Amino acid sequence: MDVFSEDKLNKIFKCYEGQDSNKIISRESTTLEFKASFSTSAIPRYAKTMAAFANRDGGYIIFGVKNNPRTVIGLKDDSFDEYDDEKFVKNLNEYFSPEIKYDRIQIKYKELSVGILYVFPSEAKPVVCTKNYNSGDKQLLRESAIYYRYRSASSEIKYPDLKILLDKQKEDERKLWLQTFAKIAKIGVNNLSLIDLKNGTISIGNFPKNKDIFIQEELLKQIKLIKEGQFDEKDGAPTLKIIGEVKSVSGAVVYTAKTAKTVVPTNLTEKYLLTTFINQTGTDSAMNYIDAFCHFAIKYLPFYYFIYLIQKTDATFDKSKLKTEINKITADSKNGKKYLLERLKSDENFVPEKLTGKELELKMKYLNLLNNTETKVEDIPNENIDIQLRMILNIVNKERIKNLIIPLLKVYLDKYYETHKSLLRKSISYVDKMLYADKLINF
To answer: Is the pTM above the cut of 0.85?
Structure first.
């Protein structure tokens, strides 16, 4: 996975079309944190955030972006680019174990330099703090603490999340043992020997008649592991042939910063928001899309899906907390906030299309077509799009909505957005409510 791909970075640097692109809309989240500057004296603070990311799903720390308001200001010097990774790794290992793996890159955002550090989710959770660290009178790091990422904050893990984390590690270990046993069965126990890289013993043969060969500790340190078909260049150097891949068993990996091409921000339009919902790809930072709703001054935009995503990572996020977040948003257009708050209060906006009038025959035709479980997207003619979109409000079967209506709306959003944008927005918002409103907690 390329964590610094153009697509991933462009999504982080989202902005509103036609406005100051230095003001981005991406919010701090479970996978994203902004820092206005980079300072070597603040490494323990960064380490805390890195540990929290490592204990969850990984995440990005962006240096050179001011958080409030969220503005790209760039780094003032080359300290991020020039900082020695060996020192960074030493600091991380001083305060946390097991190791925290990361990669970093420096990019150009227009003419500004921005540093990006990506933390990989740990394969050996939990990452635990091994040493206290005080910043003035405040304790920043506490020995034995496990830090975890909660939305936009890094704090000590709560018991329910710790239990989930430990249970998952046990399950992953169980699967690994099963895979190992399967490999042993394939090789054959009689053909199996083991090397203990910790104490330097190679066990040859089978229990109870197996014999141990001991390697002197100093020699063990000098052994070079080579792949089959490769040979040591120095004649007589101690080597051990290993068939297969060899991976490090301890010690953090040291990476060198590299400079990427200039990042082009993603313009967040109302169509982008609709497309994100239809494609179900709003998982980067769901609150960004609630922010966008408030900005656009449009009544019919999806929002239940994005609240649902927030609640998947924060079960305490209820209507009261959402209203607090909405009231913090300082959007250029106040109508969007007003519409969203009105819909949160009462969302009885989707009245089924009346089956009357001169269009009755066409309405019935499309209603039957949309309700028919045998109908596929390609079976629906590309005509009378307005009637089709209005009839979607009469579909109540959630399976039909998932299997037919969403794929159909995806096609129409691509082809007919400019000519049918009002009806598309309303029908997509109806689908959003039908699929996600009743999944929300305390709404």
So the answer is: no
Q: Identify the CATH class of 6-156.
A: alpha beta
**Domain layout of the chain by residue ranges:** 6-156, 171-242, 269-439
Torsion over CA: 338, 322, 396, 347 (sign) = negative
Cβ-contact 74, 227 below 8 angstroms: no
Cis ω for the linkage preceding 302 (within 30 of 0): no
The string of pLDDT tens digits covering residues 174-217 is 888 888 888 888 877 777 677 665 566 666 665 555 566 655 55
pLDDT digits (tens, 9 = 90+) for 101-118: 999 999 998 889 999 999
By the 8 A CB rule, do 273 and 411 touch? no
| H or E stretch at 425 | helix 406-436
The answer to whether 399 and 391 are in contact (CB under 8 A) is no
| Pair 339, 354: CB distance under 8 Å | no
Is 431 within 8 Å of 392 (Cβ atoms)? Answer: yes
CA–CA gap between residue 248 and residue 253 (Å, rounded): 9
**CA neighbor of 26 nearest in space, from 65, 76, 73, 84:** 65
- In the numeric block, the tokens 């928001």 are attached to 273
